[in-house]
Structure formats: C-alpha cells, structure tokens
Amino acid sequence: MQNPKFLILDEPTAVLTPQEADQLFIVLERLKAEGRAVLYISHKLEEVKRLCDTATILRGGKKVATCNPKAETAASLARMMVGTEIKQVRAAAARQITVPRLVVNDLCLEPDDPHGVRLQNISLELRGGEILGIAGVAGNGQDELFSALSGERRSNDPGTVVIEGIAAGHLTITQRRKLGAAFVPEERLGHGTAPRMKLSENALLTGHAASGMVKYGFIDTPATLSTVDRATEAFDVRKAKRDPEAASLSGGNLQKFVVGREILRKPAVLVVSQPTWGVDAGAAAVIRQSLLDLAAAGAAVLVTSQDLDELAEITDRIAVMFHGRLSEALPTAEASREKLGLLMGGSGLDDHKEAAHAARA
Amino acid sequence: MQLVLEKRTERSNTIALVSPLIAIGLTIVTMVILFAILGKNPLLALWVYFIDPLTDSYSLQEIAVKATPLVMIAIGLSLCYLANVWNIGAEGQFLIGAVAGSWLAVKTHGTDVGAWVLPAMLVMGAAGGALYALIPAICKVRFGASEILTSLMLVYVADLFLDYLVRGPWRDPNGFNFPTTAEFDPVATVPNLIEGGRLHLGSVFVVIVVIAAAVLLGRMIKGFEIRVVGAAPRAARFGGFNSKQLILLTFAISGALAGLAGIIEVAGPVGHLQPGFSPGYGFTAIIVAFLGRLNPLGILIAGLFLALTFIGGEQAQIAMKIPLDVTKVFQGILLFYVLACDSLILYRIRLIPSSGQVPVPPI
C-alpha cells in the first residue's frame, strides 16, 4: 500500500491457520520477486527453510551464525540455535489407555469480559495414558476453556466437568487439585507464578492444596524448598541461586519449573496450555518428553497449543477449537495439516457436529 | 548527563533495609533547611526533637504511650496494603472503636459492676472498629466502590458522630457543659504498668500484636495468601485464593486493631471520651506502616520513631516556640521520601553521558 522496499515480519504465522500461512508465503514470494527485501523473524525452522535465502541465527542476544537455511537441516539449525545437540523426543513403546480421567459434557460458558469468547457445547473425553491436543488459532476460546477446566471460572452445573469420575464443574481450583488435577497456564509470569516471589513461594502457590506443604495453617518451608530442589534436579532448571525470584529466571527455565512443579505432584490429569511458547528448543524438548512420560505413567494429559508440529509430535488425538466450539478429536495419525487447517478456519466443523449428533440420535 | 531509572532483575534486599534510613536522612536535611528559614538554630532544634525526649523516664514512657496506637493501627494497615487494598480510614475505625467501647463505660458509670467491664470494652472496641471497616470493604467487594474514597469519607462520619455523642446524650452532667463524658470508673480503665507512671497495659498488647503479625505473614498460609493477592492477583486466583474474602478479612483485622487501639487510648491515657482525643493517629499510622516496610518489626521501630517526633514536637513548641504544625510537615515529608526511596528497591539510578548515543542495557 505504501509501496515499501523493505518489510519486517515478526512471527507472522502465530495467528494464522496453515492455509493462511501458505497464502502469506505466496505473497511474500511475490514481493521478493518484485525486488523488495523481507526480514522474517521466526522460531519455526520449517518456515525459515522454505522461505528464506539467508538466515542469521541469534542466541542470547548475540549473532551465532549466518547460513543458507535451504542447505541446512532443521536439526542443524536447531543445534545452532541452542548451542547443543537436542534430544529427540521419544514416546514410550506401549502406553496403556485406561479409564476416563477427564470428561467434559456439553460445557457452555458466557465470557466474563466483553472481548472473551463464549464456549459452546464443548464435549471431550480423555483417558489415562492418553494425550489429547487442542489446536486452533489464538483467541478462539482456548483461554476460556482453560479457566473452565481449572476452576478459575466455575459452572453452575457440576456435571459439565468430571475429574476422576467426580462431577467437578462447581468446584474451586483447590478442590480440583485435591481430586488429582494439575494445571499449567499459558502465561508463566503473573498467572502461573507471582513474578516477584521466590520459587519456593511459587511452589506453595499450587502445592498448598494437596502436597502436604501446609500443616494446621502453618507453612512447611523445608517442603516448599525441597519441591524447588526436586524440580531443579528433574527438569534441569538453571538459576543463579537456590531460591531466586520467579521473574529472574529465563522463560525456558521458568517454564521448566512451572511444568516440573505440577508433574512432581504426580497428577492424574494435567491440563497444560502452550507448554513451549517462547521457550528455547532445548527446554521445549525436556518439557515435551516430560508430558509423554507423564502419560506413560498413566495420567491423562490435555495440551492446548498453536504449534501443530508440537501436537503432531506428542499427542494421540487432536481436536480443533474455533469460535468457542470444539471439533471431534481426530487420531493424530489421520490429522493432516490440511484437515486441521480447514477446521481451524471454521469449515467443516458444523457438519462434523451435526453428523456426530445424528450418530448419537 | 542524563538520569535514568533502570529496572532491576531482582529486588534489592539491601536497599529495602536502607531505604527508610535514606528517607529519614533526607527528611532531617529538609528539616534543617526549614528550621533555618524559621530563624531557629537547626542543631538545637534537632537536639530538642530527637535527643531530648530520650533522656528522661517520663518522655520515654510517653513515647511508648504514643507508639502504642500508632503501631497497633499500622500493623492492621500493613495487612491491607500487602493485599493491595487501601484502607485510608483507620482514623475513623479508631474513633468508632473508642465510641463502641466507651458505650459500656458510660452505661455502667457509677454502678457497682465487676472487673469484666474492661475486657468487654476492649472486645466491643475491636468489634466496632471491625464492623466499621467492613462498610468500605463490602462496598468494594459488592459494588466495586473505591475503598480509598469510602474509607476516607467514613472518617468524617465517625468524627461527627463522636462529636454528637459527647455534646448530646453522653455528656457528663457534672462536666460544666464541656463536651466530654464523665471520667471512666477504675474498673473501666486500662491499668498502668508502673505505679504513678504513664506506661499502660496497651503496650503489652502491641508486643503481642507485632509477634502475631510476624508469625501470620512469615509462617502461615493465610499470610501468604494476603501477600500473593497483593503482589500478583491473577496468580493468586490460579493458586485458588479468594481475593474478595481476603479483602474482607484484611479490612476486618485492620478495623479491629484500630478499634482496639481507640478504646485503649480512651480508657487508658485519656480516661474519658472527648472530641479531638486523637492527634490523627489513624493517618500517621499510614506513614508508620510504610516507614516500617509493611513488616511487623519494622513497624514497631517506625512507630517508636514517629512517636518520638510527636514528643519532640511538643518539647520544641515549649522550648523553642516552633509551631506544632512543623511536626505534621515533618511527618508528611518523611512519607514522601519513604515512598520515593522505595522505587530504588526495584530500580537503580544510572547516569548516562548525553553524547546522543543510545544506552545499552546490561543483560
């Protein structure tokens, strides 16, 4: 429009479906052909390989390398980004699918702020040993679904959310944690943790409910510190001292702590939103592996993510959210990017629902 | 050269301890200038203000007497402020506590009742203050009304209500028409700790309150809830803490402590209910709470310091004809500097040469 000669894009595909991203790439190719320069900032290696002629890799605010991404593999790019070899995430050979641990029945919820999304007739069933992914473009009701599942927003109808066979729609988040549920929200700072409080205090934030950190109203400080130590040990959390403030950790290390804090409680149900958002590739691999291990140990895991590659890597089934509705879950093996992309754009969802209703009737 | 405030990655504990001292230092420098402008000898004035009161037993006891309501109110206020709710109306809760407890003293005046009167008065004072504090709290939780405005305005309601009582129904018939109740009976009076002295039982209560608050905030889950709700409300909700319930709780506690302080003051050093018996303890306690870093032990020290300025101010008035208002100026300047210095806990000051280049923040 302004006839620019030089265009900078920063993570432009975060809010796009795969089809929309493809169209963006076509436009960008055309702009390039017209002789314009494009600076494309992204952490998605496949996009960079597909689109870019030269790539500059930054790590910790410093330039690490400049290369031709088409000549590199995704793994070699990732190695440059992280500085070390990244472990491949490996699923356990045989996972036992057991009883339903998290069931959502026809959940409807009005948004509590005017820009929120109304949840409409959401149903899902998640069994032990299973990882269910929820895909969707950001802002299609994923946040609202998370609050409804966690109990930060409660429903008047207890039957809408069933945790471990107990109707929990009316229960508080503390009561749900006592039933064996654990939650990891999208925002690490300010939601998952209190930024200016120590890690031990942030361990207490979710651990006070069911982890024996509180006796007769008094805090068992050694127990909170031991949670920090165990999370540090098991998830390789890098920090300057034993018990620093949450805000002083890097994004990846804080996310490892937040995920570790919940997994150490050995939850029966884990609801996690954007587990690796803004996290370096090394930490992301640790976190994904821990989710797989948790499912292998018999827990039910619900992962909301906008990263389809991540969902393809770790989930058994994938459902798609669009405008506050949730599609039927597809087995991950059958969920091609095209199919998911169509669902993320809203087409096919209603047919799907109607077909499902018809089948039930 | 250019002054820049730069956010620290972690709050500085050193500055957190030193900041009140810097504030006191800056205040004293400002006061020296002020004394000089008033034409008084600044060094002598400082001596009369801060050293003289520490040299005799009467003044030391008087400092403890003045610090008693200040610390007790400030402890309650600190709970509110930690939870990020702003109870500005402690003065009103203080007055209503005094009125509620005095009711019993007035009704039993001259009758032959037992020693239960004083404990009952203290309970009623605390209850009165708590109920009065719950008015702004409920308005906030239920209607979203600003607790700053409602609690502040209720101070004037309390003040005028007290005025009405002592000029009307509760006036001492033998009081030569002065607006005051009769002197409380001995059973309705807070006993002195030292025969013939000024130090009274209320100071013991203050020590208990300080210890209880330290345990609550440092060791108990309820104290943790209060701090999280104030520091990160969304994380508190994620933690399962009910912020509305905590608003009511912190207001009720701070109202109860202010009310208790009120009835102790009336039934102790003052001995009867009269208008203007408080030199603004409820407002000065706000300074005490912040000067004490919202920390129970810090508040105890800050309360003693502010009490010292009250006593020193009186002596300066007598000895050097320095107006008592200078004490209030002093307290106001002190709060100003305390809040200003607090920004150094989360920020550091850096000088940047103004050569036009963009500063590179350290990682």
Verbal overview:
The complex is a heterodimer of chains A (361) and B (363). Chain A is globular and about 70 Å long. In chain A, the strands form five sheets. In chain A, strands 7, 10, 13, 14, 15, 16 and 17 form a seven-stranded mixed β-sheet that branches. Chain A has a four-stranded antiparallel β-sheet with strand order 6-5-8-9, covered by helices on one side. Chain A has two domains: 6-82, no CATH class; 100-360, P-loop containing nucleotide triphosphate hydrolases (Rossmann fold), CATH 3.40.50. Chain A has helices at 18-33, 45-51, 74-82, 142-150, 173-178, 199-207, 221-235, 251-263, 281-296, 308-314, 337-344, 349-360, and strands spanning 6-10, 37-41, 55-59, 62-67, 100-109, 119-127, 131-135, 161-163, 166-167, 181-184, 214-215, 218-219, 269-273, 300-304, 317-322, 325-326, 330-331. Chain A is built from twelve helices and 17 strands. Chain B has a two-stranded antiparallel ribbon. Chain B contains 13 helices and two strands. The longest helix of chain B has 28 residues, at 243-270. The interface between A and B is medium-sized, with 36 and 20 residues.
Q: Could you spell the SSE succession of chain B in H and E letters?
A: EHHHHHHHHHHHHHE
Number of domains of chain A: 2
Which sequence of strands runs across the widest sheet of chain B? 1-2
CATH architectural name of chain B: Orthogonal Bundle
Count of individual beta strands of chain A: 17
Number of helices of chain B: 13
Q: Which CATH architecture of the largest domain in chain A is right?
A: 3-Layer(aba) Sandwich
Global structural class of chain A? alpha/beta
Count of spatially separate domains of chain B: 1
Characterize the biggest β-sheet of chain B.
Answer: 2 strands, antiparallel
The CATH homologous superfamily of the largest domain in chain A is named P-loop containing nucleotide triphosphate hydrolases
What name is given to the CATH topology of chain B?
ABC transporter involved in vitamin B12 uptake, BtuC
Q: SSE order of chain A, as H and E? A: EHEHEEHEEEHEEHEHEEHHEHEHEEEHH
Tally of strands of chain B: 2
Q: Helix fraction of chain A?
A: 25-40%
Which CATH first-tier class of the largest domain in chain A would you pick? Alpha Beta
Separation, N- and C-terminal Cα atoms of chain B = 22 Å
For the largest beta-sheet of chain A, the strand count, sense and barrel status come to: 7 strands, mixed
Overall spatial form of chain B: globular
